[in-house]
Sequence to fold (208 residues):
Amino acid sequence: MTKPVISCSKNGPVIVKGLENFIDSDGHRLDTKPAMGLCRCGNSLNKPYCDGNHKYTGFTDEVSPDRTEDKATRYEGREITIVNNPLLCSVAEHCHRELESVFNMHNDPWIEPDGDTLERVKAVIEKCPSGALSYSINGQPQSVSDCEAAITIEKNGPLRITGGIELQDAHWGQGASQEHYTLCRCGASKNKPFCDGSHAAVNFDDSK
Fold:
């Protein structure tokens, strides 16, 4: 079986080859082709597919100089060390919505590794779609359980990549996961091709 591969054309779409599992935001499986162009400028009239509108909207895939700093910070606990790189965050918000005792933006520091049980902390970190959060046990980095290679469309948000799909020519941030990550669809990320949560700020609507 051929492993899927993702590449990004210069100032153009995400190119996906060999993908079998393509899932929409309602959990329905979409038809695939040996090669597909997926919109990342935010302006296609045939989302999630590219229709060429990037050519007329001035879309650029350059990284913005004022993007969030690429820095992975470690938060040491008794049983677990949590690592966070805000540059990679896609603002899915699982962490502070589901485990505020550990992830609380009103606290300084905002991450308290000992704020809940080890299993609950691990479970929430493993839900992080962008790979911004990771963890170590006894000094050893832990990988998320292997998933099938798939691309899932987040409603009004990024492409969620799982299963270690190769992303060619990527400039990975510190501590970035290559097993799961998120790719921008709205065209506004300052850290392209990765999502940085800008879809929320620009009110990206993938139905238009």
Remarks:
- Helices lie at 94-98, 118-125, 198-201.
- DSSP finds three helices and twelve strands in the chain.
- The mean pLDDT is 95.
